[in-house]
Design goal:
Blueprint: H1 2-26, E1 42-46, H2 54-57, E2 63-72, H3 84-113, E3 117-123, H4 129-140, E4 147-152, H5 163-177, E5 182-186, H6 187-195, E6 208-211, E7 231-235, E8 257-260, H7 265-271, E9 287-289, H8 294-299, E10 306-308, H9 315-331, H10 349-357, H11 363-372, H12 379-387
Parallel strand pairs: 1-2, 2-3, 3-4, 4-5, 5-6, 6-7
Antiparallel strand pairs: 1-8, 7-8, 9-10
Length: about 400
Amino acid sequence: MKRTARLLRRTALLAFAAAIVLGTAAKASDFSEPWKSADRALVIDAYEYNSIDWAQLATDKRIVAFINKASDGMPPPYFCFGGDTDVKLCKALWKRHAVTRELFQTRRVVAKALGMRWGAYHLARPGNPVEQANNFLDFADPAPDDLMALDIEGIDPSQWMSLDDAEEFARQVHRRIGRFPVLYTNGKTAQYIADNRYKYRLLSRLPLWYARYKPDIDVHFPMGNWQGYALWQFSTQANCGRFRCPYRVAGTPDNIDVNVAPTDAVTLRQQWPFGGLIDVPADYLASVPVPLSREAALAGKATIIYADVATPPTFEEIVAVLGSRWSKFRDGFRMPVVKTVPRRPGFGIVQYVAWKRGGQRSPEQLDAAFAAADPVSTASTTLDRSQQ
């Protein structure tokens, strides 16, 4: 009986502990299936080939915003010229551009009428980043509360916009509308930017729209740079099919992109459109406190005054200083240039010694010394002589 009672107590304790563990594991966090929490806001992003039933979409009250594709790379050419094939292709691009923009404007009107926040993204391609930014802004014609996003699909500059050009794109957007775009990218590219944040100082500070189709991303998220995401694209055609999908939105197809925010609907509306830069830690040597005397500290009511000091040098500044010092160190071992040596064809070290021993003779005497000296020929001097 005693053994049975102990077993029952142990089983009860194990069941209680398991319930606690399962309850903790089932609780959604920012990095583990947050869309399962009913209070998390959701955002739809679509492009021109996604069909939308707005009446059904409006029934999902968790959908707070709608982001639509705006532009793609460079704008179409202003004039169509060339052969028949070139002209037909040019006209087809212009027709698609016009239809896509008409659909974009219509969707914006409908989404805002339904009370949703609006956003637009640009698919970055190789090419002039300033012209692409202008194309994006001219296409989207953003209102002050419209989100702007830059879509970087990878780090291969032959297929996508280079990261250096992406920084210039973001600067051009800021020049024109006074705020920065959100950075949309996948996990691999985000990690690369985070690892090279000293090089990509602007991209690494843009709010992150993270694309990764895994239920848990805590071990993959680049926490060294971003402490969290603005949006997480968790559902797309890659992991949403007919029989299984992380989250289905009424009135949309299975290949629609669904995003989750780490906040509720009210907070997301307040944060929209994420036009600033993420916070960075203050320089730890930006200021130091001025010491107080013991009497003043014990007396209380003492104000600590901070004295400004120089901020720590950046990695680029350190490299530049070390490079200049190395140049000076290297130049110290170089032979000085003798400016008084006459420049003549075939004037080598033997001729120079003869010239020095002659006590810097007259030109006639130098010619005689050159003729008497043994000729010195190398590959480089032969090439110089042939050029002369």
